[in-house]
Amino acid sequence: MAKNSLHHLRALGALAFLITALFLSRHTFIYVRNTSSVHQDAKNDTSNLTLLNHTVGPISPFLNDHNHYHHHQTHFLRAALSEPFHCLVQKGADYWNQGVLPAFAGASRFPTPQFGGGGVDPLADSGWTSHEEAREVPRWWKDAFKAMKGKAPKGAGARYILLDQSGDFENAFGEQEATSAQYYAYYVPETSAVIMDVTWSPRSKLTMRRELVDGVSQPIPPEEILKRIPRMNQLSDLVWHTWTGTTQEPGAFRYYAIQGIVNTPTRPLMKEIFEARRGTTDVPWSKRLTFDLNSDEGKTLFASPNGIAVNWLLIHHATVLGKREPRVTIFNEKGTNNLGDNFCMVWDLIPEKKKGSFGKVEKEPKTKRGGPEATLSSSSSSSPSVRVP
Question: What is the 3 state secondary structure string of 52-115?
Fold first, then answer.
């Protein structure tokens, strides 16, 4: 009897071991499969960079991660925000040290992409249409300019330009349908500023699109999306092309702003910074936060999806803009749009021997007496450094 009981116990133990092994192997397989999907996205994004005439170099792997997170909103945002923030701190430093600084030194490995030529309109060639509407410059920008200059901008010369990717086009993969992408912005030469209002890229629009495959509605595969993107699709390229058409002094470009930020990775990051520094997301212009690239927050925002355009503007147009020292100011202009919160980001690209426009940068948070350290949940103890020229 005792021997049979012992056999039963051993059999149950073996069965439990087998079930546990199968469970662990299954989850190990899932982990490996998810990891490989990230690398597959990286391959796709490298092809996209090549298609855009951007030389593939050390920066592209960092861009690949952002594209994966942006287009596959999975556990990345459900996990603790410490992971993406920590990752972006390092990436921001890498963008600057490996991308922007070599461009300032005339040694960029990312040549400026060329579009059009030979009498070809680069916008029309990629299916873009452009038109203008009469709109007032945002109130917060008037307040900001007044704080800087002691007077409000007159508003003359401000142009609200709408770029719509509404036309069919041809790329290296043949004839393609319009993506319905939209880049709408205020171009204000009087204040040396571009203020982005609507930013839906061709890739993001195609990512949201579903198509019938064998009668079943399915998203477009990432590798297929890359084949349907127009040659001229990067926000930085379209902004620069439009900016140079609104001013005779393109090198005067200084302020790049984004209002009404809805980008999924960027908003949680800004929310965390607001709450860590101000204890609330109710941070109007009067309580704004300004960071340079020596801070974790500055590096993170520099590497965020809404900061990528600043990188490429500095890299591709260093010969026109000269050396710049970026600072970023963030705030929340509540009640100025239909989103409730209106998260805004303004980059001040400070020329050499000039001062920043929006006051002093935030200092590293200190430990409050009797309370927790006033810092981001994701700050690393040793922040990667950047070299300011």
Answer: CCCCCCCCHHHHHHHHHHHHCCCHHHHCCCHHHHHHHHHHHHHHHHHHHHHHHCCCCCCCCCCC
The answer for residues whose C-beta is within 8 angstroms of residue 325's C-beta and 6 or more apart is 292, 293, 349, 350, 352, 388, 389
Query: Measuring CA to CA, which residue among 94, 104, 162 is closest to residue 128?
Result: 162
Provide the residue count of the chain.
Answer: 389
50 CB-near residues (< 8 Å, 6+ apart)? 56
| CB neighbour list of residue 273: distance below 8 Å, 6 or more residues apart | 289, 297, 300, 301, 330, 376
pLDDT 10s digits, 314-327: 999 999 999 999 99
CA–CA gap between residue 93 and residue 197 (Å, rounded): 27
Residue 252 has pLDDT above 50, yes or no: yes
pTM value is 0.75
> Is the separation of the CB atoms in 261 and 267 below 8 Å?
yes
pLDDT in tens, 140-184: 888 887 777 666 666 556 899 999 999 999 999 999 999 999 999
Q: Give residues with Cβ within 8 angstroms of 155, minimum separation 6.
A: 136, 137, 190
Identity of residue 344: C
